[in-house]
Amino acid sequence: MYRKGKVRKILITSGNASLTDNQIKEADLVQKFLRDICIPDSDVIIENQSRNTIENAKFSNQIIQKKFPDAKVLVVTSAWHVPRARLIFDRVFKNKPDYLPTNYSGKTNYSFDDFIPDPGVLSSWELLFKE
Predict the structure, then answer these.
(1) Full residue range of the structural domain in which residue 33 is found
(2) Which are the contacts of 30, defined by CB distance < 8 A and separation ≥ 6?
(3) Helix (H, G, I), strand (E, B) or coil at 42
(4) How many structural domains is the chain composed of?
(5) Of 74, 75, 58, which Cα lies nearest the Cα of 66?
(6) Does 115 map to a domain?
(7) What is the pTM assigned to this prediction?
(8) Residue 123: inside a domain, yes or no?
(9) Mind listing the pLDDT tens digit for each residue in 97-118?
(10) pLDDT tens by residue, 6-45
(11) Residue 85: which of 67, 105, 63, 100 has the closest Cα?
């Protein structure tokens, strides 16, 4: 979207929701990635204090109202997160944003082993319990 000229500024909103390690802010990692692919810092706005979707929306809205009050907003998030994000962002933003879902997952073929309890699965639950 940025390289096609459809988006002029990129606002990355994500702090660190970890309860144990708050050193690394997710938005800062994304900013480094954007630098690596030659997107200038002048077109990137970082909000790295939010810990959940509600704070993502509130802190982003504060930045946008202050710097770009008439901006049209496009929220880019994973497809499974769009319903929650829409519910929150539509309440926080005066002008409802548009949404661009990413990371679609298709039908998975399951095997018998998938139904056997596996304690290793607990490590992937952070995504579910984040909020």
Answers:
(1) 10-106
(2) 12, 14
(3) helix
(4) 1
(5) 58
(6) no
(7) 0.75
(8) no
(9) 999 999 887 767 777 877 788 7
(10) 999 999 998 876 666 667 888 889 999 999 999 999 999 9
(11) 100
